[in-house]
């Protein structure tokens, strides 16, 4: 029993760390409550019923049937026959001394719809989709701009959403729910409130972004680990299999994130963070510099990239979403940890500097994770995870450029906690800080 309890604890901690990518440090604050050095009970608030733990048995099982990746429905399957529990429990009705919580939206992805003059943002903190008017501009004296409509609630099944696409033909919203829901949810045009998805497409665990080839009616979905790109029929639902999969040692894929398609030049752009390992081989973990790999649009299987943008001159640093300017072929990159927007030429290769870099104190950028190009109005929209905002720039912007407009959902100067999926917490008594794998 003791061995089982220890092993279960180790698995839980490792799994909690695996599900996130950062550690948030929170400085303790003194209050009128007992002194900081006294005993404390620290807990993490349980997610709502519609936001389950990382391993969701039913969707994972469905994907296992499709791709044959997992041998059990849950990482905790081996422990089912050996329950670990306390002999006696006592319910304690105790109010917390303090609560660390971010109540504002954290915008992970963005899509501009020039046809309907809307800006659509995914809120990965409150599990929702906020839709604003394209010309909205929050004054400095106003705390937040009210969205024109919100898609949010348990029936939407939104969980840690991180990739969004608006169908230009019918206005449907494609929404990637990553890590726990493992699906692409499609909502009807004009959807709002606690509404059910129009379609649900099951995808492998750790999906991230999507792009669409409207000419061929194909949806490109990136998968962080194992690293690959899955191409589905547009309109696919349920457990429908992909039309093709780009995966293998020759692809150069490693911790896949952003994706963009250039239908005019028949090119596919993929962003890689560089983390690489084979879960079947102990000690196989490696880390490569972040990169952008470029393939033919019809690439399949273990296809080698045509070109690779990689190296210190590129300034790539844990980049998020991609967006392509079809008129020029330039690739716009939300460079999250680099706190910048990078623009590369369609023909770039190797260790090359970006064509343009938008960065500086005037830009309003704060951990930019999503980006969307509006060629009709010659604008680029960026969603910022660090300050609950979206910033809009002219396509000619460069350097420390001020945004044309800003949509804020929090007071000016707000800094998001950027909580993602905190599973465990530790207390550093020497520095009086909480350490939260996020």
Descriptors:
single chain; 438 residues; mainly beta; Neuraminidase; four-stranded antiparallel β-sheet; 29 strands; 6% helix; globular; disordered N terminus
Largest sheet report: 4 strands, antiparallel
Task: Name the assembly state.
Answer: single chain
Number of helices: 2
The name CATH uses for the topology of the largest domain is Neuraminidase
Q: By CATH's scheme, which homologous superfamily of the largest domain applies?
A: TolB, C-terminal domain
Count all strands and give the number: 29
User: Unreliable stretches, pLDDT < 50, 5 or more residues?
Assistant: 1-36, 46-79
Our Rg estimate from Cα atoms comes to 22 Å
In round numbers, the mean pLDDT is: 83
The coarse overall form would be: globular
Regarding CATH, which class of the largest domain?
Mainly Beta
Number of separate structural domains: 2
Strand order of the largest sheet: 2-3-4-5
Percentage of β-strand residues: 25-35%
| Beginning-to-end CA distance, first to last residue | 30 Å
- What structural class do helix, strand and pairing data support? mainly beta
Helical amount among residues, as a percent range?
A: under 10%
Named CATH architecture of the largest domain: 6 Propeller
């Amino acid at each position: 029993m003791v061995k089982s309890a220890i092993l279960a604890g180790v698995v839980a901690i490792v799994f909690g760390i695996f599900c996130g990518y950062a550690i948030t440090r929170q400085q303790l604050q003194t209050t009128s409550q007992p002194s900081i050095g006294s005993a404390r009970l620290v807990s993490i608030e349980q997610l709502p019923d519609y936001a389950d733990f990382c391993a969701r048995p039913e969707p994972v099982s469905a994907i296992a049937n499709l791709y044959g990746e997992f041998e059990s429905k849950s990482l905790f399957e081996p422990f089912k026959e050996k329950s670990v529990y306390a002999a006696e429990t006592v319910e304690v009705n105790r109010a917390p001394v303090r609560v660390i919580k971010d109540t504002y939206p954290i915008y992970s992805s963005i899509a501009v719809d020039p046809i309907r003059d809307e800006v659509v943002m995914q809120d990965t903190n409150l599990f929702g989709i906020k839709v604003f008017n394209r010309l909205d501009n929050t004054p400095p004296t106003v705390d937040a701009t009210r969205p024109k409509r919100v898609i949010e609630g348990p029936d939407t099944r939104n969980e840690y959403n991180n990739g969004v696409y608006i169908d230009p033909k019918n206005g449907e919203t494609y929404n990637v729910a990553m890590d726990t829901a493992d699906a692409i949810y499609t909502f009807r045009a004009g959807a709002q409130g606690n509404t059910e998805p129009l379609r649900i497409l099951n995808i492998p665990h750790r999906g991230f972004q999507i792009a669409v080839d409207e000419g061929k009616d194909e949806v490109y979905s990136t998968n962080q680990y194992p690293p690959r790109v899955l191409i589905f029929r547009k309109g696919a639902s349920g457990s429908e299999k992909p039309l093709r999969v780009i995966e293998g040692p020759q692809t150069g894929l490693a911790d896949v994130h952003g994706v963009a398609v250039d239908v005019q030049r028949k090119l596919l752009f993929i962003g890689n963070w560089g983390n690489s390992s084979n879960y079947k081989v102990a000690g196989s973990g490696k880390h490569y510099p972040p990169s952008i790999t470029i393939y033919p649009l019809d690439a399949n299987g273990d296809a080698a990239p045509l070109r690779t943008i990689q190296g210190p001159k590129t300034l790539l640093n844990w980049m998020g979403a991609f967006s392509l300017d079809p008129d020029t072929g330039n690739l716009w990159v939300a460079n999250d940890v680099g706190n910048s927007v990078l623009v590369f030429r369609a023909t770039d290769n190797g260790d090359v500097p970006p064509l343009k870099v938008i960065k500086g104190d005037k830009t309003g950028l704060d951990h930019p994770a999503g980006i969307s190009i509006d060629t009709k109005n010659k604008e680029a929209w960026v969603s910022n995870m660090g300050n609950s905002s979206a910033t809009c720039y002219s396509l000619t912007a460069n350097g420390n450029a001020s945004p044309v407009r800003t949509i804020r959902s929090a007071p000016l100067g707000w800094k998001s906690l950027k909580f993602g999926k905190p599973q465990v917490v530790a207390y550093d008594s020497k520095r009086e800080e909480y350490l939260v794998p996020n």
